[in-house]
Amino acid sequence: MPPSQLKALKTRLREKGITAPSKSKTQRKSGSGHANPKDRHTALQQIRDDFNPSELRHVSARPAKFPSTSIYNSTGSGKYAKILHRPGVSKSAGEDMRRQHLLPEMRRRNKTGGLIDRRIGEGDEGMTAEQRAVMRFTKEKEGRRGGVFDLEGSDDEGGLMGLTHGGRTIDELEDDDMKGSGKGSESEDEDAGFLVKKRRRDEEEDDDVEEADEGQPDVKKSKKEVMQEVIAKSKLHKYERQKVKEDDEDLIDKLDAGMADLLPLLRSQQAPPPPSAPIEIQPRNTANEAGMKMDPERQKLLDGMDRAQADKDYEKRLRELAQDTRAKPSERTKTAEERAKEEAERLKMLEERRSKRMRGEQVADDEEEEQGRDVDVEDVEENAVDALGNEEVGDDAEEFGFASAGVEAMQKTREKVRHVDEDEFDFDADLVASASEAELSDQESEADDASVPGEIMEAEQEQDEEDEFVNGILGGANATPITDSSNTTIVDGSGALAFTYPCPRSHAELLSIVDTLPVQQLPTIIQRIRALYHPSLSAANKEMMSDFSRALVDHLAYMAEHNQPLPVAEQVIRHLHSLSRTYAIPIAEAFRTHLLAWHERPGGEPSKGDLVVLTAIGSIYPTSDHFHQVVTPATTLMGRWLAVNAPSPGAKMVDERRSRVGALMVGLCVRWQALSKRIVPEAVRFTLRILATIAVTRTSSTEVAEHLENLTAMAELWKDKTAFIEIFQPFLPILRNLGSTATPASEHLTTLLGPSRQTRRPLLLHNHRPQPLRTSNPKFEEGFNPDKHYDPDRERSDAAKLRKEVNREKKGAVRELRKDGAFVAREELREKRERDADFVKRERRLVAEIAQEGRESQGGGGGRARGKGRR
Amino acid sequence: MPGTVTNSAVRKRKRDDAPKMDGTKPRKAPKTTSTGQSTQTRILHLEEQILQGREHYNNIVELQSLVQRYEAKPRMATLAAVGLCRVFCRLIAAEALVRTGSATAGEAQVVQWLKGRLREYDESLLTWIGSPEAAQESTSLTLLMRIVKAETSQGSKRSEQAWRTETSTFFKLIQALLERTNADGARQEFGEKYADEYDDVRFYTFLAVKQVLKTSSAHSEEIVGGAVDLLSHMESPPDSDYQPQTWYSADAPSSVPNNPLLSLATHRKAAQETWLAIFRSPLTKDNRKRLLTLATSQILPNFSTRLELLADFLTDSFNAGGSLSLLALNSIFHLITHQNLDYPEFYTKLYSLLDEDILHSKHRSRFFRLLEMFLRSEHLPAALVASFVKRLARLSLQAPPGAIVWIVPWVYNYVKGHPSLGFLLHRPHHPAHRIYSTQSKQGSDSATMAVKDPFNMLESNPNITGAIDSSLWELETLQSHYHPNVATLARILGEQFTKREYVLEDFLDHSYASLVGQELGREVSGKKGVEVEWAIPKRIVMEEVGEGQELNGVGRLLTGALEAM
């Protein structure tokens, strides 16, 4: 026979250690017991569950799904882990909840008025009783604090100004004196006594000191005590901190003292130390002698130096250190083959990049950087220039291209530069020498070839490049002596040409410099300005030069407007080209501004400046690019002009201006597409129309020659296009009409047309692999879980999820409502029953009373009645 | 003098006016002061007096003289005109301008005199129409229309007369509106304020316009221009289930049963007649263009019976060529699709419109839109569509980018719609294809033989051009167009046709301006930088010839251009 339930329970409780045989006090103090109430709780719950197995329902509300396929349900470890349902518990919880909320509501139904409970936290579901109590307590406390005679409160601010007794604060007295002594005022006494008592009680209950320390001090300790403690603690901390700091400072001082020794070592590579250094060292030495370790900077600071200044100095020093160039191994001199190979590789890479751009593909960034550092074909003396550490000057100058006359002079300079080793002082001297040499050759060349203007130009230009190369450094180092000498030399040669100029930052400023001088001198001036304001000389120069490049673009257009000679413009374009390496964006923007001005001009007619600008664009920018920020708009604008200005079929005369400008534009279009071989329909149309008109009107032969040249170039350019026949067939009858001048062009076309006809095939553009049908459903999944939805359509699956959720919520709500209804009905029934029972009780009492009365009355006056009743 | 007669008549009839005769005295006083304020009060006073009795009718003359001096005193003249308008309106309402049967000779004379004044007043107001001053024009129009309202609100018979007779204010107003070439503002105002608002005004305007066109022979071109302008400002006629219901005149025709004005058919008939009258009169090219733009929206709905006349007009316009034919196309297509018009060789004519200049004309987008609409049907023979495709492709070889940008997706859509056009882009070798079979006789190895384009550009009938057997080399060539966007777009023809169709409307309105403006409007992106040609050329415009230098090709062209400018 199994043991009785009670017995079983008792044993279980004992097993779990919840009820234990009563222990002695010492045992209890040392023993662990069930310190954690949580463990105790779970243990109790477990015992309860064991004894009431019917309260649990192990089965999930969901029916088991596909036990053979589902990897989750069988083990109960997955999404739907096994849940212990306690229907009884949840039911009673629900019932309680309803009783708590629904019942008052039900009772209040159809009633108006009543009391509103304004106590803190009353009617707030989110607060537990405890929180409510805390809130009320704090509120009460706050209300009391404001009292004028609140002694405790005043302690907070007063600190040491608190009450004293016999020169000691009350707190000190508190422990021993206050208890026994009757000296204090009554209230004080009471207060203190109360506190003491309270603390005692605390100690008895729980001798955990820590808790008293950090728990609720306003309950357990007086404010004053707490504050004292805090103050003491903070003082301790402060002291400790100071001590640590002092140690640190000692250490730093030690290091700083060594720093002054170290600095010269670190900067041994640099030029002579800044003038401040010796002054710095001075105090250090004295300090050392005095046996005091003091950082010079710190000393200075103490001496009254501005704090901000000191910071700045420090920053500067730091930056210097960071930017200090490290020693590099010098590059070994390469053999001729190596150089040639390198050159070939570089060219190949450039060409690759170009064709990539032409196809409209992205060019990788690292390549871009490489290209930025690249030097030109004629750059034979690459190493020497690198050694100078002035790459950009060398680059630009070289890439300008040196022709025969100046090469020797340049070669000499180069050789000298190359022989120089890393030493700075040698270097400077050498440069001065080379400068004078350059000037000498300048004189020579000018004296020699003064008769031929083109030669002068060339010679000058070459010298300028050299000048730029040289002056770039001299201008920075020691400009004055050189300026004098060069001034004199040039005055001899070609009139007053100053050596230094303020950097022109707008076109107006540039004009003010250039206007008075002969046009031929312009490249020289540009050269000098570029040298004087080379960005390597000053950080501000960079901005100045970018403004100058803009002004130069404007000046290029200006030159064309004022019919200044083309060779000079050519030099300006080449300068712009070399400036574009550094200031690509400002120059491109300036060009685009010109294009925009042309675009927005009413009638869309280009000015002379625009034509030169177009020429410059074609030379400076890679016109073969698929898309280029300057070239593409320029081509489109030319296309527009050609489309608008193509003469109409019935035109009776040729406008010469239109014809010449058109010839230039077609020519430019053709040249720009020389590599990429893109088609320009407008150019074809214009040439066709203008030739047709010329055939009718018979105008001058030079124009015809230009257009025929263009036509031939176009035919040559596009001979591989599949629509070559369609494009150029219409020209043949017109050329026939033009007569003998056009015969070569006509023959050329005919010869090109022949092979084109022969080779053309019908298009085969769609040799694509057939596209597979898209298969999205069904899809087979690894580890398929039937509970999961594998809908590839994200929207649909989301919608399904949402729908399901709504359904579940709806069901839940309905269930709740139904339960509410049942509860209300039950309550009403209960109330009705109570009422009825009450009524029956009362009725019975009344009846009894009446009967009693009746009896009494009968007994008193009418025994007959009773007798009757009895009967 | 009418003035004397008036006075005597007044004395005879209106005795109760006698005490008010004192009112003449204060009139004298302000007359002496000629400041603006007093003139204004005097005008008001004069006006008041006229309404008081016949003895003051002479004031009309005085006011009229003020009205005519608009140039000198515009404000006074306006005030006087407004005053006179009020006077006449009241007089008309009081039937003072109607000769009753029982009237004496004197009364008849008064009526006659008043009518004369009214006419004079009308005339002076009509001169205001077409004046450069908008306010003056608008005032005169409003005042005249108010008189028209008064005139047409005196019983059905008389108002009918007031609408129709050539001496009525309304008729004269319409005439003035048509004749004055610079009365655009007035015409627009009339159209918007009156003709659109009131059914009867619209109806009678149509009648009057027709009448004016019929009667006037001199300067008829200007008159027709005015008529077209006036009618263009009137909204399109109401829907078929519309019941005319808004009336300008006070006695609405709706009170009379069976009034023809009540049925929409009458309105339409009047409109149709008027349009036909306009078609018959001599038309300048501009007028014709305006008419054609109006055709679908405003003219076509009015034509219910005599469509063939409209069709004739449209055909004439179409045959005129140029932009006119373009404009006529739309209406013709509308007639074909909606009114079941039999129009032979519509597509042949459409095909003939595809010439070199169409892609450069400013009507390009309009034409493209129509072309798309006409060819949208998938029931059209593929050969016909292929001809259009091939011809446009051929033309695009000399077209501006704006046109190519439309043509390429258009071709895409049609290749997608007519699968047999796919051969234009992809024609693998097969002896059944004509392009191969024509050549196979000559050579033994047909795969390597040259092929001849079967497409005949000169053939005018789009059904037999042979385009369906050709290949679109032109569009393939355009894949290397100079403009990157165009080139990229042209490449879609060589890729898989995965997109269902392109929305052509998005490609329509591109032009040089938009292409350049779009690019130049953007900032130069500093991130990518600007590519610069790596080699700086030694010479750009010059070249070295022996010892010296000379201009090279570019240099020669540039110098030539600079010299010519």
From TrEMBL, chain A:
Residues 203-216, 363-379 have a biased composition (Acidic residues). The keyword Ribonucleoprotein does not apply. Involved in nucleolar processing of pre-18S ribosomal RNA. Has a role in the nuclear export of 40S pre-ribosomal subunit to the cytoplasm. It comes from Friedmanniomyces endolithicus. GO terms for biological process: maturation of SSU-rRNA. The keyword Iron-sulfur does not apply. This is Nucleolar complex protein 14. Keywords: Nucleus, Ribosome biogenesis, rRNA processing. It comes from the Eukaryota. Residues 93-107, 137-147, 217-226, 316-362, 779-814 have a biased composition (Basic and acidic residues). Residues 1-42, 84-226, 267-293, 316-379, 768-814, 849-871 are annotated as: Disordered. It is found in: Nucleus, Nucleolus. One of its GO terms (cellular component) is small-subunit processome. Its main location: nucleus. Belongs to the NOP14 family.
Automatic annotation (TrEMBL), chain B:
Residues 325-490 form the CCAAT-binding factor domain. Belongs to the CBF/MAK21 family. One of its GO terms (biological process) is ribosome biogenesis. This is Maturation and nuclear export of 40S ribosomal subunits interacting protein. The keyword Membrane applies. Residues 15-25 have a biased composition (Basic and acidic residues). The lineage of its organism: Eukaryota, Fungi, Dikarya, Ascomycota, Pezizomycotina. PANTHER family: NUCLEOLAR COMPLEX PROTEIN 4 (PTHR12455), NUCLEOLAR COMPLEX PROTEIN 4 HOMOLOG (PTHR12455:SF0). Residues 1-41 are annotated as: Disordered. Pfam families: CBF. The keyword Transferase does not apply. Residues 31-41 have a biased composition (Polar residues). Coiled coil: none annotated. GO terms for cellular component: Noc4p-Nop14p complex; nuclear membrane; small-subunit processome. It is a multi-pass membrane protein. Its main location: nucleus. Keywords: Membrane, Transmembrane, Transmembrane helix. It is found in: Nucleus membrane.
